[in-house]
Amino acid sequence: MFKHQTNFRFHRLTAFVIKSFSQAVSFTYIDINVITKAVQWIIKQQETSGAFNEPGIVLHKEMQGGSVSSKRSLTAFVLIALLEARDINLVSKEVQKSVTESINKAVKFVANGAPASIANLYELAIAFYALSLAKHPIAGAILAELEKKAKVNGGEKYWTLPETEADKLQPWKTWRPPQTKVRAIDVEMTSYILLGYNLKDDTDNGIRIMKWLGRQRNPRGGFISTQDTVIAIQALSGLGEKIYVPNFQMSVNTVGDTWSQGKTFDVNNRNALVLQIEDIPNTVRSVSVNANGKGLCLMEVAVYFNVNNDLREPAFALTTTVLNDSTKGFRLRVCFSWLRGGQSTMGILEISLPSGMEADLDSVDTTNTGGQYKKVEKAFRQINLYFDAILSKQMCIEVDIRRVALVARHKPVWVKLREYYEPSNEVVKFYQSKALANATIIEVCGPNNCEEVKRR
Hints:
This protein is of the alpha+beta class. It has helices at 11-24, 32-44, 68-87, 93-111, 121-133, 138-149, 163-166, 184-199, 203-216, 226-243, 434-438, 441-445, 451-455, and strands spanning 151-153, 156-158, 249-256, 259-268, 287-294, 316-326, 329-338, 347-352, 357-368, 373-379, 382-387, 395-403, 413-419, 426-431. It has 13 helices and 14 strands. A hairpin with a 6-residue loop joins β13 (413-419) and β14. α5 (121-133) runs antiparallel to α6 (138-149). The model is unreliable at 1-9, 63-69 and 173-179 (pLDDT under 50).
């Protein structure tokens, strides 16, 4: 099994590894014994009802423990992993019988009373794909419910959580779609439904979903979080296999209002998998695109900009205080809390370091973190502290930051707190050593150093 360093065993993490190995086996060597042991462990944790319930720390809010609703989401996720592993013979023959029995029990639990008994849209989406993969007849009834809740707009099709439910996760403050990106959970839900459509060979609906998902990607090819990116890429790849045209030739021409020469992209069988990029001049304010030929390709125009304030109500409170400030170093206190009721999932506190400064990891004080602190690691010009959760009650850490190089006139540097598995929930604050910000190079050097600087 795969576990946390505190010895919590994670059903979801183990299932995720099984799923990932199932997808990777076509491209690299995977030891079948490793997968078999993981599968054996996870099916031993199954309840007599067929459900799986997470005993460890919750990493994904839609699978938070306790209710039958949450058990159904987690059970569907594990069921998908077991089905995908079984379908490509990634478990040894010795355990295939017990795997089949476990799958049948999980299918019965997920399908029980569906769709009427399913509590929310996320559960409908993941249950639809899981039961479609299992070829269960109730998947059709679940799809009918999903169709009632679908949003269709301009040739696109997608699903989003109701505003009242979504606002508890990621409330918008000022801007709303389409001016800003959707939530990760919406991308994940819609991707599960696309996976189900792929199994039905329904490319008409698949292309409508693809158009919407394509607009939600960030310029680097991912989406919002790890979870939605993994599922979305799997769904889009599956659709791509079904709509692939063996012989195609396309020419895509782009021009801008102040960019008359433009750029022409040629896409064909030989370069279809090659990413083509062109930097548009900063003066361009509008771009026209014209495509001709035969085939299907995706063109994206990425625009980067800054805003003065965060677009959403903050998920965290965060303050920084510089203590014992001097030109030789200082002690930094960071206090923080979760603002949306209950507690967050796994959190990471990133503290960037001023130029010429180094954090003393032995000095880190985490006694005021409610037992949630797990570890600290050093990265390039920053340190990262990990927490099982960020509590609604204020938590504080302190660390000594000492000078290791002669640098004066320090500028403010940032501290960032975010949910590890929901990175859009983040807050950023800055801190600054006033002593070092106001110090001259001679004051930093001291009376007996930097003679060359003094002579200048």
